[in-house]
Amino acid sequence: MAKQYDVLFRLLLLGDSGVGKTCLLCRFTDNAFHPSHISTIGVDFKMKTLEIDGIKVRIQIWDTAGQERYQTITKQYYRRAQGIFLVYDITSERSFQHIMKWASDVDEYAPEKVQKVLIGNKSDEEHKRQVATEQGNKLAKAYGMDFFETSAFTNHNITESFTRLAELVLQANKKDLDLLRVSINDQLDLSALEEEAGVCDGSSNAQKTCWC
Amino acid sequence: MDQSVAIQETLDVGENCLIAVQCLLLLRNGTESRLLGLVECSKEHALFLFSHRRMAITGNDVTLQEIIPISYDFSVVEVSSPDELAVVGADTRVRVTFLNEEMELKLPFGSHTRLFLTEVNRAWCDVCEQYPSSPKFAWLNKYQKNFKEPGSLTPSATRKIKKRDRSNTAHKENKHATSSTETIRGESLHESSQGREKAEIRNELVRSSQHTVSNKAQMLTMPQFGLRDNLVKCELLKKEETYTYIENFNFFLGTYNVNGQTPKESLHTWLGSTAQPPDLYCVGFQELDLSKEAFFFNDTPKEQEWMKAVSDGLHPDAKYALIKLVRLVGIMLLFYVKKEHAEYISDVEAETVGTGIMGRMGNKGAVAVSFRFHNSDICVVNSHLAAHIEEYERRNQDYKDICSRMFFRQLDLTLPPLTIMKHSIVLWVGDLNYRLSDLEVDEVKNLILKGDFETLHNHDQLKRQMDEEAVFVGFMEGEINFQPTYKYDTGSDEWDSSEKCRVPAWCDRILWRGKNITQLNYQSHMNVRNSDHKPVSSLLKIGIKVVNEEIYKRTFEDIVRSLDKLENECIPSVSLAQHVFHFSNVKFMQHQAQTLTLYNDGQVPCQFEFIQKLDEPAYCKPWLTANPPKGFVAQGASVDIDLEVFVNRSTAPELNSGQQQLEDILVLHLERGKDYFISITGSYLPSCFGSPIHMLCQLREPIQDMPLETIHKLNSLPRETSSPDTEKALDIPKEIWMMVDHLYRNASKQEDIFQQPGLRSEFEEIRDCLDTGSLDTLPGSNHSVAEALLLFLDALPEPVIPYSMYQQCLDCCYSNSQCKQIISLLPQCHKNVFNYLTAFLRELLKNSAHNRLDSNILATIFAALMLRSPTKQDILEKRKAKEFFQHFLVQESH
Ligand SMILES: Nc1nc2c(ncn2[C@@H]2O[C@H](COP(=O)(O)OP(=O)(O)OP(=O)(O)O)[C@@H](O)[C@H]2O)c(=O)[nH]1
Ligand SMILES: [Mg+2]
């Protein structure tokens, strides 16, 4: 049988506290939903295997703290991501306004090639909607991003949006991938590929101090 | 400690104990501690198992119990019962097997065990790479003698043999016991009852033994083992039945000894004889070419001729693709499939084994093709075994040699090569050369004429040998309803008329082995007269495992999902009782601590560490420490970390001035896991300690009575502004005055003043008194006040003699006038302080009879505080600073 895993890379979830980042991740990896909000204080991750164009893709999804006071620290994780979700809550105008700030931080701290997808979460709460779908669309267009309205609660568009971002990352890295595939016919650690010297990969031998 | 040292002492020169672990040997009635060492000698490895005293330090502490050579038959696997899956991260249980010996050991959790297992695994992989050449282990022989009770070997040896017999009959296709090595055992006689018990346990283990990789979770935490792929494969294999179904395909098998002839007639009557076109063809030839060229150079034009004859003779109603042709001298196998099946054929490998002259040459032997058809693995063998009626044992041996020497490369090169018998379906054709025994030629011909094949079957050597299980164990052959295929006069259907007048025999046979196989037809083809043999064909209906793509995909996804889940569950995780810590009313030089409790709520033990943030020099601010800053938490255990705040002279100035707050976020990182943020906040009470002189001169009230903004604003004023517009400003900070005045009044004659340390508790009272003005007179002993004064000077952000003037002072330290000149240039408030302090010190010196001070002592102490270097001071600089300062301690004579 052919080998099962070909690529490994990192996706990052960003957005204000309470927009549902942790819930999105939980729904995607465990197909579960927790109605209570336990704010993430730190950086958490989970693994998931997808198949895209016949390539087995293992993705490591990082869930970050959305609370403002931690933002200077979470920024420092951006540069190790190949794909980033910018998440707002359609019932919170404020969280939508903040997307601009998140996006500019991403421009500043994430690698140039990083792929972005805009997510308007909690689409199930239509009655409380403060941000029209059209607004989301417009913003996404302005930034050249794909856009999904999702619901972690009803499992709406969850797999779609994760798969889409993974596809985008795959495409963006296709050149490197093809190159690597010729040389080492083994598991590719795209995340390692992206690492700058001196910053280590979470799964390999960690250096004394590092951002993993 | 490294116990391999103790083992090393027991070894011979040239033998090295590479690594050792202390472990528990699992017995039915408990466990016994053992020391397990991996020993290497000239690239061969063995595990040495020792009993030992509590802590083995020297060779005298250990007694050799057992040696397990690491050969091809050796394996070590992690085991655990399914209900133990949850306790990953506990001790590692492994089962070591060698031939039919087996034991279970419990190794301590941790990287050392990992390392040990990795080393053992590496040693075994080396052996596999060398296969089929196997290590000799000659160096182990001497240990056999060294055991305390040499007689003890007998009982265990017989036991072992018995056991092997049983397991051989149980699974007949079991590994061939090739290795000449034996487990060397050191059970002494008086232990034999226990030994028997052990054997029973082992028997039980043998029965229940399943080399499954059940402790998945634990292995997943070791990415370097790359086990994920293997786990997926393993799970897929286990669930094969769910996503495959059996579909029947017709296999046409043919064998023909052509006696060196070229094809002269169509083979259609033989190969195209079935009603429907078969799905696959496997056609074997023997004696394709009897020339010397073919024998020595393995090169013959007959290959193409016969291949063409076969291609032309295949069933006309279907199109076939030749998948593989393999030939060894005159033994050739052709493998065709219907065009539409070609895409389901994979992993095709061909191999040959010669068993002819010298046991190696290709005049006799076999060729074989190994392949997968859909999800079934199939091996087709075409062999030509030894000739002559009396040589049936030689033929048996040829068969065994072919089985043991035929290896197919596997796609996954880390796997050991595949043998014939490892295939779930084996199809064997050929001139097996078995004859009819104990009958005269005429009797045979007579029986054939009468059609009494049954009597003849009783004389067939192959049938007899198979009945005795001497050859082709596990193989089936259909009923033979055709007359012997050997030996005819070429070109005719007449029996051999040469003077040798051979006895007819069923030399040419077709056998199979595997499930879901039925024979539809087994016949010879009399009207093919090209050779002194007749060709034989067999049409088999074989049930092949065909994959239901949809279910396969779903199964695969399920497996991947559950592995993802398992992996996610095994990401190290802890819970923190608290994420936010607040330290209120932190004071200068006052220690405060709070406890951060980490509880390991994950499935694995974990390593934690506070890590540095980008662009910061340390994991936390200088006024904070975490103790311990890194460590290990076992699963279900917790660890207390002390978070300590302490503001000293180097951190106080910025906190006083408001440039810094007591605020920090610690990043607690788990190795291979999450990061946690811990917020530290606090309120700092500003203090005169660590505040600049010019700022203090602006404060008529105690510092803590002032609003914070005022303090911060005053701090930010440049030093020079103190002189002009401020008639309100004090000449010197009142805090200095309070301390000095106190000492002047009370301590002028105090013995050892400035030499004896103060009390910390009294210092804190003095600090509070200065900062809050709560008392009119300073509390504490004279020594404590003296200490406070020194600390005050030490904490000044800008020393009494500002850093900018330091070098100048040293440069002119030998000139009294120049020194005084420099002091006159100090900023006003600094000059005041300097003069005030030196006047006080001169006063003290007047009482040196009582306080035992001299100018040398005072200069040493005060120069270091008032004339501080912006960098590190060397001895010469220190001397100069003292020199400078001493000018101001001589009594002025007026
Ligand atoms: N109705 C609805 N509620 C949601 C949805 N997603 C999340 N929530 C709720 O929103 C709250 C916050 O969700 P979290 O996922 O914890 O938010 P977060 O973005 O991770 O927040 P921080 O960790 O503080 O950055 C929770 O109470 C969730 O139950 C959704 O799709 N629909
Ligand atoms: Mg969260």
Automatic annotation (TrEMBL), chain A:
GO cellular component: plasma membrane
Record localization: Cell membrane
Swiss-Prot/TrEMBL cofactor(s): Mg(2+)
Family statement: Belongs to the small GTPase superfamily. Rab family.
Entry's EC annotation: 3.6.5.2
Protein name (record): Ras-related protein Rab-15
UniProt enzyme class: hydrolase
From TrEMBL, chain B:
GO CC term, one of those recorded: phagocytic vesicle membrane
Primary location class: membrane
SMART domains reported for this sequence: IPPc, RhoGAP
SUPFAM superfamilies for this protein: DNase I-like, GTPase activation domain, GAP
Any one GO biological process: phosphatidylinositol dephosphorylation
Compartment(s) of residence: Cytoplasmic vesicle, Phagosome membrane; Early endosome membrane
InterPro entries: Endo/exonu/phosph_ase_sf (IPR036691), Ig-like_fold (IPR013783), INPP5B_PH_dom (IPR031896), IP5 (IPR046985), IPPc (IPR000300), OCRL-1_2_ASH (IPR048869), OCRL1/INPP5B_INPP5c (IPR037793), Rho_GTPase_activation_prot (IPR008936)
GO molecular function: inositol-1,4,5-trisphosphate 5-phosphatase activity; phosphatidylinositol-4,5-bisphosphate 5-phosphatase activity
Start and end residues of each Rho-GAP domain: 715-894
Enzyme class: hydrolase
Gene3D superfamilies: 2.30.29.110, Endonuclease/exonuclease/phosphatase (3.60.10.10), Immunoglobulins (2.60.40.10), Rho GTPase activation protein (1.10.555.10)
Database matches in Pfam families: Exo_endo_phos2, INPP5B_PH, OCRL-like_ASH, RhoGAP
Biased composition (Basic and acidic residues): 166-176, 184-198
Protein name: phosphoinositide 5-phosphatase
Organism listed in the record: Hemibagrus wyckioides
